[in-house]
Specification:
The complex is a heterotrimer of chains A (554), B (329) and C (389).
Chain A (H helix, E strand, L loop, with lengths): L7 E10 L3 E11 L3 E7 L5 H8 L7 E6 L2 E3 L4 H6 L2 E4 L11 H6 L19 E2 L5 E2 L10 H15 L14 H14 L4 E5 L7 H16 L3 E6 L2 H7 L2 E6 L2 E7 L5 H9 L17 E11 L5 E11 L3 E5 L6 H8 L7 E7 L5 E3 L5 H6 L4 E4 L3 H5 L6 H9 L11 H13 L16 H14 L4 E5 L7 H16 L3 E5 L3 H7 L2 E6 L2 E7 L5 H9 L22
Parallel strand pairs in A: 3-10, 3-11, 6-9, 9-10, 15-20, 15-21, 18-19, 19-20
Antiparallel strand pairs in A: 1-2, 1-4, 4-5, 7-8, 11-12, 13-14, 13-16, 16-17, 21-22
Helix pairs in contact in A: 12-13, 12-14, 13-14, 14-15
Chain B lengths: L3 H27 L7 H22 L6 H29 L4 H27 L5 E3 L1 H7 L10 H8 L3 H19 L1 H11 L1 H6 L4 H27 L3 E3 L6 H11 L4 H20 L6 H7 L2 H15 L21
Antiparallel strand pairs in B: 1-2
Helix pairs in contact in B: 1-6, 1-7, 1-10, 1-11, 1-12, 2-3, 2-4, 2-10, 2-11, 3-4, 3-5, 3-10, 5-10, 7-8, 7-10, 7-12, 11-12, 11-14, 12-13
Chain C lengths: L1 H8 L20 E5 L5 H27 L3 H13 L2 H26 L7 H19 L5 H30 L3 H22 L30 H20 L1 H11 L1 H6 L4 H28 L10 H11 L4 H24 L6 H21 E5 L11
Antiparallel strand pairs in C: 1-2
Helix pairs in contact in C: 2-3, 2-14, 3-4, 3-13, 4-8, 4-9, 4-11, 4-12, 4-13, 5-6, 5-7, 5-11, 5-12, 6-7, 6-11, 8-9, 9-11, 12-13, 13-14
The chains are: A alpha/beta (554), B mainly alpha (329), C mainly alpha (389).
């Protein structure tokens, strides 16, 4: 492999945002044809930014990109296509009301097979109609029929299934992803970059995707996968390059390395992922959920007959592939999601149970249920980005009291206290929260939610996007709550963390409970299999308790 | 006596300014720009044409050259509305100002501009009535098809209009085709729906937005020109154009962003607009005022119905009214 | 994730950000970044500069269009606004009315509800006031009449705004056009009643209502006809400031305006807040209509609102929805319109000249917000410099 000329080589790439944030620093990276490269790194390590510079979204501050050994400049996505680079972003870039075919031809000048050439005309003249005229390519009339034919051809070649006439909004996530890949191939992509492609897929879909990627590798394409999941690195890639805090740490041949080595390189120190797990103290049932069924507004079944109990003084983990009903489950408990069937019983200290289904958040708190919720969408749901820390503290408390006016003093004091206790890095409590970094935003949110002395704490992906240090702060906070006797529900995506933090873990699959296991004794493979399928609950495996509450399915 | 042929032909005449305005606004909205300045633009389009033709009529004493009599006001009108379009584009696209606010300010400005120059020209002519007549130019604009009179009611309904009326229908059909079937249309729609996606696909967002807004304004401006030169027989009087600009904007929603539907919808609105003239009210002037409410009430009902039905294709462009700044993705 | 969040802080513009060293020819001239926050002093300085620049442009426009000396034109504008105590009172009245409309619209705008129906809400309030004066003026005792007029006008305005709000809350109906259309329905209603009540028959006008009895007329205070109205608006201003800044309702309005999801998350009933806020907004517009008929004009015409519903949008927006700053912006716009009307009579220009000048000033102020929110770096010179307007 060493004697080959890399399809892409990046040398000394540096990119800063604003004056302070260094996203990439002096990165060297080679990408070869006929190879799958994993780009591994923690959240915020600059993987996506680095690849965005290849796909023309960003432009490096300094450094050089070479394609097939020739120095090039890529200053727009269009030029990236011309060099045969196609990137599938984590958030799909598709127009919902367009058909697959319309999305695929968007931005192109003709339906002809693109010539693979280093088209260097970056200053292409634009004609009056807004078209782009290059020396090589001529604009032609839009011909969706012809485009559809080529799309079918590509699908046949690699084994995709795309209906060119189907509208995007009628598609599942994995179908949308397929459209994105076909779009890249349609544009003649030889170098394919996928940003965390499996995050939204079921394991079966992920396997299918990997099969296609292997297919393309055999076809001589260069493939880059951005990921932070080690098992993916191991199963698909030939080589792995590791980034940390924007810097290139090193690269390994996948076959010759192991998870521990990669983790150490990724995190930068010997990581002992040891999270405290104190024994539950006053454990008694707190929330009893029975037969909960929820449909989304467009009628899709999101939760199907879910039953479980969350106990006080313990952390109940919820595992599952993303989009399996976790969001709906938490929102249903918090009173934000209409429930079709089932009960959610809150059991107070004195043992009285009250059903909170059909109540809105105000009514729930009026019933004396101290419920806190750290939602997945921090700035879109949990906080108001343009308001300052103090005003955000007020979100939960402003209704208190009979006065027509808001009490400004208490939230200010609370804000001071939270900033102080959680070591939030902010200029003052009058700073709008959107200006804070991800970790600090999360601390503000969690700080506010635990300040109201909850008896139930719901949390969704609380450490997503946070660095290791902030993550550990959050774990500590959750443990403190647990020791205070709070029933903590922790929806997570990292199985290792779930296994180390949680007392019990409930596994969701497609809106159904596939099992509840003991966090101390369960193993990762077993949970992984339960995430995939309801009926493959590994029997006889050590430490797996069948869900005790789960009665026979009605 | 309810003369159906007269009613239809008057309704069509009424509909043409609305059709132009609606077609122009549709292009603009499809690219994501909600241009509430259209009423102002139509005023500016009208008065620019008036100024052009006034200057030409003043410089010629005898017979007007038909070609020049048409092309000068036409170009003046297009130029005037183009400048308004550039103003809107510059403020909302380059300077990212709020579209609603800019639109309202443009309407204030445009109406004032029209009335000021209209008023000034009226004063220049030293006329006794508060209006300015450009009948010679209007004669060129309003020339109906030669066989219209020979065909009775049929000719009246189909052939009795000036060329700008037919041009308006043609523009609507062409616009419809461009938006739906061509690459340019695909790109414009993509920008209006999801500019970040269009950007990633290599489409030059700002350029397309400028072009859409300016083309939209120029088309809308023609509506103002048609109104003065043909409908009003070349008579400009201040504020006479009224609220047709707002109705044109409402029509865009009524027609679910499809100019080909707008051809018929504008005729319907045109009919509602003049219905009061044809309904026998027995000399009760007050009731006529109530009939004038009809187009607005129908618009409101349509707004409510479009809001209730949730078909994805019939919704406004998703990023309508929002400025696009690449960094804020 | 982190990349995404850091973006909202401050970062380089992508399209314009090109490598300096390698590709000299591709380097763009301008480079735009979002400002984190500007000192309010500096921001107001920029706005002031924009106003000054717009006045210069207006002066050029005046000279080009009319051949007049701009200094004397501005002089007479000033004269028109402050030239005599009567003129100053009229300016005060105009400012008060404009301010009142702007204040009325503000809570709706803070909630991101585009209430362009101020015009109609004023008209309907005025219509109810006039109706009370005409129909009940001679039957009810004066204090009762006053109360009925006030309540009727406020209620009518509230209903006029409440209808679109209801449909917005329930079915997300486009409120911009709905409120706009409601204007014309209101105007036609007024046109209808003007003919019904016209005096004398066939004139198409109502004329001064209750000229002899002065029933339903707000009495002048200390001999000043407009003082009552100005005092009312002062109270409304203070009230609105407190309401938005310190009340629970005001806080709810801000949360709903920023993010409906967050509002739902903390248990705010979004539908209720929308309807409640618009009832308030429309009610205050109705109050403006009441002031106009009862305290100032004592008659009603279809052009009574005179575009104040739209100008009010400008006043509120220019002041960034801050009631205190709205005093200044409404004064500016009232000054422009009074001054323009003075120059039209003084130099025999058309009345509409004022609209053109107002338009130009507005464009400049709207445009200058860009320089407050964004930073422009000129790359060529190597150092960062900012352009003003």
């Amino acid at each position: 492999m060493e004697n080959k000329i890399p399809a892409v080589s990046m040398r000394g790439i540096t990119k800063t945002f604003g004056s302070s944030v260094i996203a990439n620093k002096d990165v060297d990276l080679d990408i070869y044809r006929g190879e799958v490269l994993s780009l591994l790194g923690e959240n915020g390590s600059g993987k996506t930014t680095l690849m965005n510079m290849l796909s023309g979204i960003y432009y490096p501050d300094s450094g050089q990109i070479m394609i097939d050994g020739k120095p090039v400049t890529i200053s727009s996505p269009r030029e990236a296509f011309d060099y045969g680079i196609g990137m599938i972003h984590q958030h799909f870039k598709l127009v919902d009301v367009f058909t697959a075919a319309e999305n695929i031809v968007l931005g192109l000048d003709s339906e002809e097979v693109p010539e693979q050439a280093a088209a260097n005309e970056s200053e292409e003249a634009l004609d009056a109609e807004g078209g782009r005229k290059t020396k090589k390519k001529k604009r032609s009339k839009l011909n969706l029929k012809k485009a559809s034919e080529r799309i079918r051809q590509i699908c046949d070649e690699y084994g995709f299934d795309v209906d060119p006439k189907q509208k995007i909004y009628n598609m599942s996530v994995s179908q949308k992803q397929t459209v994105e890949i076909v779009k890249a191939l349609y544009r003649g992509a030889e170098i394919l970059i996928l940003d965390e492609p499996t995050a939204v897929l079921t394991p079966q879909e992920a396997d299918k995707l990997f099969a296609v990627l292997r297919n393309m590798r055999e076809d001589g394409k260069a493939i880059v996968i951005i990921t932070h999941k080690l098992h993916e690195v191991e199963s698909i890639s030939d080589r792995v390059a590791i980034l940390r805090k924007g810097e290139f740490i090193g690269q390994l041949i996948t076959k010759e390395t192991n998870a521990q080595e990669m983790t150490n390189m990724m995190v930068g120190r010997e990581v002992a992922l040891n999270i405290d797990r104190p024994e539950p103290l006053f454990s008694s049932p707190r929330l009893k959920i029975d037969g909960l069924t929820v449909r989304s507004s467009d009628g899709v079944l999101k939760l199907d007959d879910v039953s479980f109990t969350a106990n006080s003084g313990e952390i109940l983990g919820i595992a599952g592939i993303s989009g399996c009903g976790q969001k709906e489950l938490l929102e249903a408990i918090a009173g934000l999601q209409p429930v079709e069937k089932g009960t959610i019983k809150y059991i107070a200290d004195d043992g009285t149970a009250s059903d909170i289904v059909g109540k809105d958040p105000t009514e729930i708190s009026a019933m004396g249920v101290a419920l806190s919720f750290v939602p997945e969408d921090r700035l879109g749901m949990g906080l108001v980005g343009t308001m300052d820390l103090a005003d955000n503290m007020m979100l939960r408390s402003f209704r208190k009291g009979k006065s027509l006016f808001t009490d400004r003093k208490t939230p200010r004091e609370l804000a001071e206290k939270v900033v102080d206790e959680l070591e939030i890095n902010t200029e003052s409590i009058s700073t709008p929260v959107r200006k804070l970094s991800g970790g600090n935003v999360q601390k503000v949110l969690v700080g506010r939610e635990i300040a109201s002395a909850p008896t139930v704490l719901l949390s969704a992906y609380v450490v997503r996007g946070l660095d290791i240090n902030s993550s550990y702060t959050i774990y500590d906070l959750l443990n403190q709550q647990k020791q205070k006797g709070v029933a903590v529900v922790y929806v997570g995506e990292d199985l290792d963390v779930l296994l180390e933090l949680c007392d019990r873990i409930m596994v969701l699959c497609d809106g159904k409970v596939s099992g509840i296991v003991d966090g101390r004794t369960a193993d990762k493979n077993g949970i992984g299999m339960m995430m995939t399928s309801l009926h493959q609950v590994p029997e006889g495996e050590e430490g797996i308790n069948r869900n005790p509450e789960r009665r026979s399915r009605r | 006596m309810f003369d159906i042929a007269t009613f239809i032909s008057r309704a069509i005449v009424q509909s043409i300014p609305l059709l132009y305005g609606c077609t122009g606004e549709t292009i603009s909205e499809k690219s994501g720009s909600l241009n509430l300045g259209i009423p102002g633009v139509m005023y500016v389009g009208g008065i620019s044409g008036v100024i052009g033709s006034f200057l030409y009529e003043q410089s010629t004493d005898g017979e007007l050259n038909t070609f020049l009599a048409i092309i000068i006001p036409l170009l003046a009108c297009l130029l005037g509305s183009l400048l308004m379009g550039l103003l809107f584009s510059f403020l909302t696209i380059t300077l990212r100002a709020n579209q609603n606010v800019v639109g309202l300010a443009m309407t204030t400005f445009g109406v004032g501009f029209g009335n000021f120059f209209g008023g000034s020209l009226i004063k220049l002519t030293g006329s006794d009535v508060p209006s300015l007549a450009l009948s010679r130019t209007s004669h060129c604009f309003a020339k109906q098809l030669p066989f219209a009179d020979d065909l009775g009611w049929f000719g009246k309904i189909f052939f009795s209009y000036g060329f700008l009326a037919y041009a308006g229908i043609a523009v609507a059909i062409i616009t419809s085709y461009i938006l739906k079937r061509t690459r340019i249309g695909l790109h414009i729609r993509a920008i209006g729906e999801n500019p970040a996606t269009a950007d990633a696909a290599g489409i030059n967002i700002n350029k397309y937005k400028y072009i859409s807004v300016c083309a939209g304004c120029m088309i809308a401006g023609l509506g103002g020109l048609y109104y003065v030169m043909d409908y009003a027989s070349g008579v400009w009087s201040n504020d006479a154009f009224g609220d047709r600009g707002w109705l044109a904007i409402a029509l865009v929603i009524f027609t679910i962003w499809r100019p080909n539907i707008a051809i018929f919808a504008s005729m319907l609105f045109g009919g509602l607009y003049i219905l009061y003239l044809f309904v026998p009210t027995g000399g009760n002037m007050a009731v006529k005022e109530l009939y004038k409410m009809l187009p607005y009430i129908v618009t409101i009902i349509v707004l409510i119905i479009t809001g209730m039905r949730n078909k994805r294709e019939n919704q406004p462009p998703e990023s309508l009214g929002l400025p696009y700044f690449r960094e804020e993705r | 994730m982190n990349e995404k969040e850091s973006k909202s802080n401050e970062m380089t513009s992508v399209s314009e950000n090109k490598n300096k060293t390698n590709h000299e020819n591709r380097e763009p001239l301008l480079h735009i970044t979002r400002r984190s926050e500007m000192e309010w002093k500096k921001a107001w300085l920029i706005r002031l500069a924009a106003i000054l620049a717009s006045l210069i442009v207006c002066a050029i426009a005046v000279t080009l269009a009319t051949g007049l000396d701009p200094i004397s034109v501005y002089g007479s504008m000033f004269d028109g606004a402050f030239g005599s105590s009567r003129k100053t009172w009229i300016l005060g009245k105009e400012t008060a009315l404009l301010l009142c409309v702007a204040l009325a619209l503000t809570p709706a705008f803070k909630m991101k509800f585009w209430n362009l129906g101020g015009e109609g809400q004023i008209m309907i309030g005025a219509l109810v006031t006039a109706a009370c004066m005409i129909c009940l003026g001679n039957t009810l005792p004066e204090p009762v009449l006053m109360i009925v007029m006030f309540a009727g006008a406020v209620g009518a305005g509230a209903i006029w705004a409440g209808i679109p709000a209801f449909f917005k809350a329930k079915w997300n109906t486009n409120e911009t056009l709905f409120t706009l259309m409601m204007n014309y329905v209101a105007i036609q209603l007024v046109a209808f009643f003007v003919i019904v009540w016209e005096v004398p028959k066939g004139s198409g006008k109502i004329g001064i209502i209750n000229q002899s009895t002065m029933a339903g007329w707000i009495p002048s205070i200390g001999g000043e006809k407009y003082l009552f109205m100005i005092l009312v608006v002062v109270i409304v201003t203070i009230g609105m400031y407190v309401y938005l800044k310190y009340s629970k309702h005001g806080y709810e309005i801000s949360v709903v305006g920023e993010s409906r999801n967050t509002a739902r998350y903390v248990g705010i009933k979004v539908d209720k807040v929308i309807i409640r806020t618009l009832l308030l907004s429309g009610g205050l517009c109705g109050l403006t209509g009441w002031l106009m008929v009862s305290a100032s004009d004592h008659t009603i015409t279809t052009t009574l609102a005179g575009g104040r519903g739209f100008l009010g949008v400008m006043v509120a927006w220019l002041a960034q929805f801050n009631p205190a700053a709205m005093v200044a912006s409404s004064l500016l716009l009232a000054f422009m319109s009074r001054g323009a009307s003075e120059i039209s009579t003084h130099f025999q220009l058309n009345q509409s000249f004022g609209d053109i000048i107002t338009g130009i000033v507005l464009f400049f102020i709207i445009g200058c917000e860009f320089f407050i929110n964004y930073k422009v770096h000129v790359r060529k010179t190597g150092k960062e410099s900012e352009a003003d307007v």
